[in-house]
Design goal:
With 322 residues, this protein is α/β, with parallel strands linked by helices. The chain is built from 11 helices and 13 strands.
């Protein structure tokens, strides 16, 4: 009877220990730990942001540009001029974070076509929108895309709490995979192809995403220049006047051209700060790819095995002390 009682107690204890393991495994599987995991991930980037490479800079369309340039949308000639200037100043690449609409009518896109063709290092984005309840791609005219060095998506999908932590290396559209614009640029720079997830040199998460390795606050991590200051400096230099910015600051730089919180272009929250322009997300992707410093969490299946293993260890070690 005594032995039977011990075996019965052991069986009951083992059953409840196993039940606890199953419950925690189910909680993990259905994502109840995601909130805590995101919290620790945010703290990680706040306390130890990654290094920011010094050859990624932004050329920002700010309020001063919208005041100086009255036409809407901003005419092609300004973007064509910017592409030309950055080429003459030795920029490594010009990356737009918005779709170039182009001018309509006779001779449309002519200036932009020529500028993009002459530069040979312009990258244009694809945006994901919705029409009739389905996702559609919003893109620059084919006359411009066909002359660009590369095209890629810049789709941003914040987590449920509104914070951008991940990005998709690829999205599927029109029966083919499109890489993220930042990855396309970096892989081109390094002479590597990027046509499918198999080409990635870092392992994605179980949902196919990668964690953006944030490099501190946007204003401090990267250097920023005004779109109008660049245009006006080029003109002042042609007149032998002192420029607002120096051409040498743009040599061998990857120049992100985009809106900085104006013109209806939205900002995003990150683990480090509440508001970052869209090109800040692109900069984070480019920076992480150049450093090959993407955070790689264990796959969900491995985490689940760890949890089950720890649960069974608890059963083995604590049962004799009952």
């Amino acid at each position: 009877m005594f032995a039977l009682g011990i075996n019965r107690d052991l069986a009951i204890q083992s059953f409840f220990s196993f039940l606890i393991v199953v419950v925690f495994a189910a909680i993990f599987h259905f994502g109840f730990f995601n909130r805590a995991e995101n919290l620790f991930l945010d703290l990680f980037f706040r306390w130890s942001p990654v290094k920011a490479v010094d050859h990624v800079i932004s050329v920002e369309i700010r309020e001063d540009a919208l005041i100086s340039i009255k036409e809407r949308p901003i005419p092609d000639k300004y973007f064509a001029k910017m592409i030309q200037i950055l080429k003459e100043w030795g920029a490594r690449a010009v990356v737009f974070d918005f779709v170039l609409e182009g001018q309509t009518g006779e001779g449309k896109y002519i200036e932009l076509q020529k500028a993009i063709s002459d530069n040979k290092s312009v990258y244009l984005p694809l945006l994901v929108g919705k029409s009739g309840g389905r996702e559609v791609l919003i893109r620059s005219p084919l006359e411009l895309e066909s002359r660009a060095q590369g095209v890629g998506h810049i789709h941003v999908n914040p987590d449920n709490d509104g914070i951008v932590r991940h990005f998709q290396p690829f999205i599927e559209a029109g029966g083919r995979l499109l890489p993220h614009l930042g990855l396309k640029l970096v892989y081109d720079t390094l002479g590597r192809k990027i046509e499918s997830p198999a080409d990635l040199w870092t392992r994605p998460n179980s949902d196919g995403s990668l964690i953006i390795p944030w490099a501190g606050k946007w204003a401090k991590a990267f250097k920023h220049y005004s779109f109008m200051d660049v245009l006006n400096s080029y003109e002042r230099l042609s007149k032998k006047e002192r420029p607002f910015v120096q051409p040498k600051d743009f040599k061998d730089k990857i120049c992100l051209v985009g809106y900085s919180g104006v013109g209806g272009h939205g900002n995003y929250a990150t683990p480090i700060e509440k508001s970052v322009p869209a090109m800040g997300v692109i900069a984070g992707v480019i920076n992480g790819a150049l450093l090959n410093d993407f955070v790689q969490p264990e796959q969900d299946s491995v985490k689940l095995l760890y949890l089950i293993f720890i649960g069974f260890l608890s059963i083995i070690f604590f049962t004799p002390f009952r």
